[in-house]
Design brief:
Two copies of one chain form a homodimer.
Chain A lengths: L5 H5 L9 H9 L3 E4 L11 H8 L15 H13 L9 E4 L1 H13 L5 E6 L4 H9 L2 E6 L11 H6 L5 E7 L11 H14 L2 E5 L25 E6 L12 E5 L2 H13 L5 H10 L4 H23 L14 E5 L5 H10 L6 E4 L1 E2 L13 E5 L4 H17 L5
Parallel strand pairs in A: 1-10, 3-4, 3-5, 5-6, 6-7
Antiparallel strand pairs in A: 2-8, 7-8, 9-12, 11-12
Helix pairs in contact in A: 3-10, 4-10, 5-6, 5-9, 11-13
Chain lengths: ~400, ~400
């Protein structure tokens, strides 16, 4: 029997994958499981998008252009102008989810052995795409005590080696919910410029910024126009994860043309998803206001309730819909398994994402979990109660 | 300005990409361009698939399971049983087009520097996925005089080195239309078994076998059950290219689980496409009979008409909807450009795929093009007439 690749062996499994059977067993036992571990919002997809799908009237479901449907790309450029990002439609490549934009950017800009610096904790799947491209992820640690602010520039600069080719940020951040300020990003810009690095930015949570804070896009950092590659997605903005539509955006023509070669190999992004995404651009303003108010209410409830639990701490996230929570436990991986397999409260339990999966430095995040506030407040209330009761009786309580 | 990756530099561009501007100019001049270069059929997508999309009634367009929607995987296993391939639904992973199945298979089974033997001419995008995975493609040449039959086993075996980890076939073949016989595949099986290689098979044209010939799937080769990885797609079977739904199928659990790690990194295949693909499984038999008869008629017309042109030769393809055509020209790349830029007949011209892009051995296929018979017969008639007239006056005629 032939052997799988070393690359396949090294490919990280989803950190929560091993918890899935425990969640399934809990459901099988008749327990309600609150999935606090995933970024699948329960917010309805805009009606304009669903209507466009229901009125799809082509006779043949054809490939689109490898860079996406032109009318969508043109209209999408208008969306970016509306949020203060001035780019031409020819600088936008439609991808199969934001995921594919990350993969194409890695492949186009990095060779095996090249290094990318990423503040940790970070979105665990960056590890996967880096492994596919053979790229080494070099973490620079941010801390819960600072609310996961960008680490000092000296710390980032110390990580730079001759193999460093880029820095990646997610803003607002998954998994921390931290919103980088313009000042932090400008400091980062100076490093990027000084060392002539690529700056990758995942801004899929752009619309989710709270407390009057404004999102500042890396596309508006002056002096590094050719260094920046933006990854975006419709998944969160329009609660349309299953459409699998994202975008790779760059003013660097060489990077764009190279990424396009990868895009051509896979022929085209999904046609139905593009139809839905193009229609989503006409989503009425009220939709976003409602969604925004809903997330604010959920966050305020969740953060307040968690911090009232003895021994629990979470910062107030400025954006996205995640927060990292420190728990009074010996090992959050064990706790996340135990709460599914050995605990229930009023016939319910919760699935948490242990934070260790978001750190590249071994040993970090051992007493932290990520919670996604993608559930209705009533569900969040019940879920937090389950968590509170569980912590009272968990044998590994610190 | 930071530099793109060597990998990106080496990534092959689509071989017809450089012809696209010439086609656009021809259209701009008011000429009708017959696109004989692409595998985008004009056959309508089954009504059951379009109806399923029009009746999509979920409120939230959610991620599916990373391996695909369970009901679709279960039903798809039934389709495979109906064509004599006995597999369990848990051995089927839904991918974003057949393209992603190829990429996942390459990533899961091959490391950078590993070699894969592929009979040439072959589908040009295999080069792209191999480049992404850092895999070296080792061609073994098949010849137009033999109708592109599988080369003798000794020739294949001579290509095996210590780095050889697999062999890949496409059956029926794109770009040649050749249908491998059971005997040819069993001979291949013996090599695969002897050297313990992976056997990758792209069978996306399974339904398109002509002249009473039956398709024999590599999944039914005895004794190499753990070596075989099948790549499939709904694109051609249901004329549903834009749905971007394919499948990776293997009885090798280690390969499956490894591929699943790559699948998890990109979260899920497209939801709408899966809904359409699942519904497509209920396509009435008459649809396939009509499509089959249509392709047979197109093939018969095309092959007959081409071989009646002075100096032109094409074998009779036994499957798929492509044929490689030898033209009496100095250089098919130049000719393909010239016919777009300098020639028209009755205000029409044609876009051809120069075959050199399908060979890995430099210099081969210089006087060959691939023609896809994905257009209506009336269009094919006009297109062949354009080609015939062009060959009469082409300055580089041999």
């Amino acid at each position: 029997m032939p052997k799988i690749s070393d690359k396949g062996n090294r490919m990280p499994a989803s950190p929560i994958r091993r918890l899935v059977p425990y969640a399934e067993e809990a459901i099988h036992r008749g327990h309600k499981v609150y999935f606090l571990n995933i970024g699948q919002p329960d917010i309805p997809t805009p009606e304009v998008a669903l209507q466009a799908i229901r009125h799809f009237d082509e006779k043949v479901v054809k490939y689109s252009h490898s860079a996406g449907i032109e009318s969508y790309r043109r209209k999408l450029a208008g969306y970016y102008r509306s949020v203060g990002i001035d780019i031409d439609w020819t600088q936008i490549m439609i991808t199969t989810g934001g995921s594919e934009a990350i993969l194409f950017a890695m492949m186009a800009c990095f060779d095996p052995g090249d290094e990318i610096i990423i503040p940790e904790p970070f979105y665990a799947n960056y590890n996967g795409f880096a492994a596919e491209a053979g790229v080494k992820v070099v973490p620079v640690t941010s801390y819960i005590e600072d609310g996961f602010a960008l680490p000092p520039m000296e710390e980032i600069e110390q990580k730079i080696t001759p193999r460093t080719k880029g820095i990646m940020v997610c803003n607002p951040n998954n998994p921390t919910g931290y919103l980088y300020s313009r000042e932090e990003l400008e400091a980062l810009r100076d490093i990027v410029k000084k060392h002539d690095l690529f700056l990758f930015a995942d801004e899929v949570y752009r619309e989710f910024c709270y407390d009057g804070k404004e999102h500042f896009s890396v596309m508006n950092l002056e002096g590094i126009e050719e260094n920046v590659v933006l990854m975006d997605s419709v998944s969160k903005r329009y609660s349309s994860c299953g459409s699998r539509i994202g975008a790779l955006i760059t003013r660097n023509r060489e990077v764009f043309d190279t990424a396009l070669k990868f895009a051509q190999a896979r022929l085209s992004p999904p046609t139905f998803g593009q139809v839905a995404a193009e229609a989503s651009l006409d989503t009425p303003k009220e939709y976003f206001e409602e969604v925004y108010n809903e997330y604010i209410a959920r966050r305020d409830y969740l953060v307040g309730a968690l911090n009232r639990i003895d021994g629990v701490f979470t910062p107030v996230p400025g954006g996205a819909f995640y927060t990292i929570v420190r728990l009074p436990v010996d090992d959050a991986d064990k706790f996340a398994q135990w709460i599914l397999s050995d605990f229930s409260y009023e016939d319910a339990t919760v699935m948490l994402a242990p934070a260790s999966g978001f750190y590249a430095t071994p040993g970090l995040g051992k007493d932290e979990v990520r919670i996604a506030y993608v559930l209705k407040i009533d569900d969040l209330k019940h879920a937090v109660k389950v968590l509170e009761e569980a912590l009272k009786v968990y044998p590994g309580r610190k």
